[in-house]
Structure formats: C-alpha cells, structure tokens
Write a structure and sequence with these properties.
Length: about 210
C-alpha cells in the first residue's frame, strides 16, 4: 500500500507520519517512511540544491529537479518496497508538484501531468491524506510569529519558503482544486485539530477503507 501525505509546510505532516508508523508497527505491518524530495543519495543531493541553494531556479528547472529526485526514489526504493509487501508512507508526492509548480508557479497543468507520469512510472497512491491549513497559520506555526505579515530573517528560510505568502495561497488553492476533481483518493483533515485527534481520524479512514 502506498499512503501519501500532502499539505503546506507547517500542517503537521511529519508528526502524523511518525504516529502512523507507530500505529502500523503495533499491528505488525511493516512500513517505510520517506520524504520528497529525498530518500536516496542522489535525491538528497537534489533536495539540498532545491531547498538550500541561494541561487534562483526557473519554474521549469525546479519542476525537472523535483521530478528527477522523484524518479530516483520511485524506481530505487518505492517500487521494490511495494513489491516486498511493505506499506510505504510518503511525505509529499506528485500532488505537491501539481500544487506548487502548477498552481503556485503557474506551469502548464497538461505538461505537468506528462512529466508526473514519467517520473512516477504511473504509480498512484492508494490514499492521500491532505492536512488542510491556511497559509497564514502555517507560517505562524513554522516561524513562531504572532501576526501577519510575518517578520523574519530571510536567511533562515529555505528557497521554497522564500516564495512568500501569496505563493502559498495559490498552492493551497491548487490542492483544493485537485481534490475537487479526485475526491475518491483524498481524505481531507483539518490541520487545526489536535494532533491526537488528527491521528484518530487518519487511522479511522484506514480501518474503514482497508480493514487495517
């Protein structure tokens, strides 16, 4: 089974993935948690280039770098793990490309779908949990600020975070539009709820849909 988590940074994906990994382990289900971009030596190098670089990267270049990282992860790690019967949990997958590079950066969505199909080898998640949080709250959480606009040292941000609030508003809108067209795969959860309640909702969905 392939389970993916999506949402703006600060929505609590990492916390929920950790909780879900423990939940699956307690039921004797072997799982593997991975992140995008990353997961292989090459993909981690691409991650550093994408996030840590102070250099500007064009939207198309950004798309292709993310896609190269994804192709490495899918072919080297995810497909073999699924073939062994493991449950793979991904912190981001191709829905992030649609939301960030498509709606956020404004790249053509049809072109994106073609690139995504290549980089994923056609792999689809069994279920995607979208932790929904408005960008203002997400940034407050991430940088521990009291109000918007947020005052922070830009040097403390990675390259994606420096894109600004309007960019993240577009990203969230992109997620919502994507979900509107593909409701069956997504489970949408309010990220403002308490972490334990979010975990309960996630496990409830998995129990109901997949009899875990």
């Amino acid at each position: 089974m392939l389970i993916t988590f999506e949402g703006i940074d600060g929505a609590g994906k990492s916390t929920q993935i950790k909780k879900l990994t423990g939940y699956l382990s307690g039921r004797g289900i072997e799982s593997l948690s991975l992140r995008e971009p990353g997961g292989t030596e090459t993909a981690e190098k691409i991650r550093r280039l994408l996030l840590d670089s102070s250099d500007e990267i064009t939207p198309l270049g950004e798309l292709l770098l993310f896609s190269a990282s994804r192709a490495e992860l899918v072919q080297r790690i995810i497909i073999p793990a699924l073939a062994e019967g493991k449950t793979v949990i991904l912190d981001r997958f191709f829905d992030s490309t649609t939301a960030y590079q498509g709606y956020g950066r404004g790249l053509d969505l049809e072109m994106l779908r073609s690139v995504i199909a290549i980089s994923t080898c056609g792999l689809q998640p069994d279920i995607t949990f979208f932790l929904d949080l408005d960008p203002e709250t997400a940034l407050k959480r991430k940088f521990s600020e009291k109000s918007i606009p947020i005052a922070f040292d830009p040097n403390e941000l990675d390259r994606m975070e420096r894109s600004g609030l309007d960019f993240y508003r577009k990203v969230r809108s992109g997620y919502i539009e994507t979900i509107r067209h593909e409701t069956g795969r997504f489970a949408c959860i309010d990220a403002l709820e308490a972490p334990d309640e979010i975990h309960r909702r996630i496990t409830g969905v998995l129990e109901n849909r997949f009899n875990l």
